[in-house]
Amino acid sequence: MSLVIVQPKPASFAAGVVAAFGAFFGLFFGTSQGSGILGIIAGAVVCGALAWAAVTFLREKETVGRWLFILIFAISGLVTSGLSGMVFGGLLGWLFGVITFFVASGRYRTAMPPYSTPGQVLWYYAFRTIAGAILVFLITPILVVMPLSFNAEDFFTFTPEMLKFDPAGYSLKHYRDFFTNSDWQQALWNSLRIAPMATILSVGFGTLAAIGLSQPHVPFRRAIMAILISPMIVPLIISAAGMYFFYSRIGLQGTYLGVVLAHAALGIPFVIITVTATLVGFDNSLTRAAANMGANPITTFFRVQMPLILPGVISGGLFAFITSFDEVVVVLFVGSAGQKTLPWQMFIGLREQISPTILAVATILVCISIALLATLELLRRRSERLRGMSPS
Q1: Which long-range contacts (CB under 8 A, 24 or more apart) does 378-382 make?
Q2: Which among 21, 41, 23 has a CA at the least distance from the CA of 100?
Q3: Least enclosed by CB within 10 Å: which of 103, 301, 335, 371?
Q4: pLDDT at residue 267 in the model
Q5: Considering the entire predicted model, what is its pTM?
Q6: pLDDT (tens digit, 9 = 90+) per residue, 44-59?
Q7: pLDDT single digits (tens) 198-223
Q8: What is the rounded CA–CA span in Å between residue 276 and residue 313?
Q9: Which residues of the chain have a pLDDT value below 50?
């Protein structure tokens, strides 16, 4: 085991690193105030100066230095944006305090081998910082929608009462509107009628296709696979237009069956990919052993093969369900007013009547998606245990 000697760094080094982070955050604050360049300069100067002062005078009192960062940023947020700004500023101050003393103490070297070059250390942390920034960029729009769904006013922005954390600024009125409005309930009922049936068809056809394509004697396997997963690759608007012209010729356009078949076609590629991935670790000698014991192909499939590939089948079914439940482009082309789904109603709420109820619906859908993703993760771990890829 290698021993890494932690050497404290000069205040100027820590100040430079913290100034870079300050410039990054200053870009967003400056842009919101109308000047991104000014925000970069102010963020770098202020954060760099605070870091230099904290390391110079409080190097041996790290806890005091961190609390000083929190206090300064919280007061600044309170002066500029009220109570919400104080909370956000306190969190930001905690982050900068951690970064300052983490760099100044040299502890960042403990995660790297002792022979690592400065360039390797820089890339190690730069990569993680970039990945974290991308995650924040992707998650922030979702996090903004959720508190807005509790807005007491019919606005799509934070009201002064919400920013002050005044209870009068929050309400469940948009959730009540969703559960009591006939248009929203009809849209929800349509989605619940369409998505499960589309999922059943996707799972059935997709599982059979994946098992068939896993056999080495099937000719043109790659070409068939490419055709079956093409709905994932082809732009959705093209698929929707093609389905519209095809279904209108055979009398399925504007019908419940047409929408179900269209959504099933979109979900089948997800089932094929997940089941195929599960079949990669499947031991075919188990099916041959079952056949030698006298089991017919159907019995072998349900008693031997299906229990082992079930996590992949369920995962593909969840993906197919999410695809059908959240899809809006294809149903606009293939469906009619009688098949108006929840995403379609949300689209109308933005385009025609500007209904804030869509914020409550979006929050509910996010919670459902989180639950489904957690289920997928549990199934993935179970699949690895069944295939012997994970010890526990």
Answers
A1: 379/311, 379/312, 379/314, 379/315, 380/311, 380/315, 382/311
A2: 21
A3: 371
A4: 92
A5: 0.72
A6: 898 999 999 988 888 8
A7: 999 999 999 989 888 888 788 888 88
A8: 9
A9: 1-2, 391-392
**For residue 131, what are its two tokens?**
């990945």
Phi, psi of 106 (to 5 degrees): 80, 10
| In-domain check, residue 111 | yes
Let me know whether 195 and 289 are in one domain: yes
Tell me the two tokens of residue 144. Answer: 């903004």
Q: Which two tokens stand for residue 332?
A: 């606009």
What amino acid is encoded at 365 in this protein? L
Six-digit token string for 118? 């400065």
Task: Tell me the CATH number at 306.
Answer: 1.10.3720.10
CA 248, CA 257: separation in Å to the nearest integer?
A: 13
Tally of domains within the chain: 2
pLDDT for 1 equals 41
Expressed as residue numbers, the domain containing 87 is: 11-116
Last residue of a domain, one of 98, 116, 134: 116
pLDDT at 170 (0 to 100):
87
Query: Two tokens at 56?
Result: 């110079």
The one-character DSSP state at 151 is: B
The Cα–Cα gap between 338 and 183 comes to 11
DSSP 210-269: HHHHTSTT-TTHHHHHHHHTHHHHS-HHHHHHHHHHHHHHHT-TTSHHHHHHHHHHHHHH
Q: Which of 50, 56, 48, 46 is CA-nearest to residue 68?
A: 50
